[in-house]
Amino acid sequence: MAEHVTIHEVGPRDGLQNEPGVISVADKVALIDLLGTSGLTDIEVGSFVSPKWVPQMANTPDVLTKMTRVAGCTYGVLVPNMRGWDSFAPFAGGPFEVAVFISASEGFSQSNLNCSVAESIVRLTPVVSAAEAAGVPVRGYVSCITDCPFDGPTQPESVAKAVADLRSVAPMQVSLGDTLGRGEPARVATMLDAVLDIAPADQLAGHFHDTGGQALENVSVALEKGLRHFDSAVGGLGGCPYAPGAPGNVATEAVLAHVTALGYTTGVDGDVITQAAALARSMKG
Ligand code: HMG
Ligand code: MG
User: Fold this and answer.
1) What pLDDT does residue 18 have?
2) How far apart are CA 104 and CA 70, in angstroms?
3) pLDDT confidence of residue 239
4) CA–CA separation, 104 vs 144, rounded Å?
5) pLDDT tens for residues 138-154?
6) Can you tell me which atom of ligand 1 is nearest the CA of 10?
7) Residues within 5 A (CB) of ion ligand 2
8) Which of 49, 60, 79, 100 is the pocket-test mutation for ligand 1 (most atoms within 8 Å of CB)?
9) Contact residues for 253 (Cβ-Cβ < 8 A; gap 6+)
10) Could you tell me the pTM of the whole model?
11) What is the pLDDT of residues 24-81, one digit of tens each?
12) Which ligand 1 atom minimizes the distance to the CA of 123?
């Protein structure tokens, strides 16, 4: 029987957070609702972060209120601290997943979260506890898995330590973010070997941005290492406002075609993704 790959759509969050203008609630909801009809089971829809830091995500509560909740689909939101949890809490009974996020490098941690990596773990720990108490699933992110825009190349051991630190807070799937999209397949393979020493492949996801056009090769490397979860954004939207030079995420339509050609099933309708990619591109500033 063909093996399954789960695609985590991050376009409405990682994609639209990087647009120069704020996308309206109606447009975000239209994109999320269309994606919801594609068979995707995981869609990241917003962030409960500071609106001063990422104004593009300030309308997340309205988006969560107005979007269609498709049965069987889990909708992710980023929550960096208890202030964010308090804003998310009214939605805790819904089909939502909280994502906490740290960096494998100190420079990006300061730029993105205004604190050290160790402090970010302290801040997210009560968020994870609150989510667990409320029965909300939790996912983790580690950014800068091969390169940091401020500190240069990231050592594989730093990524493994970051993954271990997150998973010592609570068991969670950790998405490995090539924030700058500069990771060559050989370095991604070395990094994965270090991480796989401390976490099983089924608890890891690949989150590749696509600067050098190597994201699909990196997906292949990760597949060879046993990973079966990949993040992507329709239309290749994306970037991170606190990582200068960070390009779009690898496009969902490209990952879908790639893993399908390799013989994996996804349960995702490519025609709907094509429509959603066109809609996403039409929202770009
Ligand atoms: P800070 O300024 O150090 O926070 O920012 P603070 O605790 O000192 O608070 C300052 C003000 O912000 C206060 O308001 C707080 O209430 C408010 P004031 O009293 O001045 O009016 N505040 C908040 N408001 C709303 N929601 C909140 C919140 N927290 C504080 N949650 C903070 C620290 C973490 C808040 C800030 O740095 C932040 O929001 N950072 C998020 C940046 C971000 O979202 N980046 C993009 C996502 S990460 C990414 O894209 C990478 C990823 O895709 C993987 C990859 O590709 O590598 C996941
Ligand atoms: Mg990202």
Assistant:
1) 87
2) 34
3) 66
4) 6
5) 999 999 999 999 999 99
6) 53
7) 14
8) 49
9) 234, 235, 270, 273, 274, 277
10) 0.97
11) 999 999 999 999 999 999 999 999 999 999 999 999 999 999 999 999 999 999 999 9
12) 34
Contact between 172 and 166 under an 8 Å Cβ cutoff? The reply is yes
Report, as ranges of residue numbers, the positions in the chain whose pLDDT lies below 50: none
162 vs 277: CA distance, rounded Å: 33
- 42-47 vs 74-78, strand pairing mode: parallel
Q: Are 107 and 141 in contact (CB under 8 A)?
A: no
Exposure b/e, 79-108, CB count within 10 A at least 16 = b: bbbbebbeebbebeeeebbbbbbbbbbbbb
Structural domains in the chain, CATH included, are 6-282 (3.20.20.70)
Tokens of 254: 């490209």
Instruction: Kindly list the catalytic residues.
Output: 240
Burial of 213 per CB tally in 10 Å (0-12, 13-18, 19+): exposed
Tell me which residues have their CB closer than 6 angstroms to ligand 1. 14, 17, 47-54, 78, 80-81, 83-84, 87, 101, 112-114, 141, 143, 177, 179, 207, 209, 240, 242
Task: From the CA of 101, give the closest atom in ligand 1.
Answer: 58
Residue nearest to atom 24 of ligand 1 (CA): 50
Q: How many CB atoms lie within 10 A of CB 202?
A: 11
Ligand 2 centroid, distance to 182 Cα (angstroms): 13
Mutation test residue for ligand 1: of 22, 42, 47, 50, the one with most atoms within 8 Å of CB: 50
- Residues in Cβ contact with 124 at an 8 Å cutoff, skipping those fewer than 6 apart: 79, 80, 81, 100, 101, 102, 169
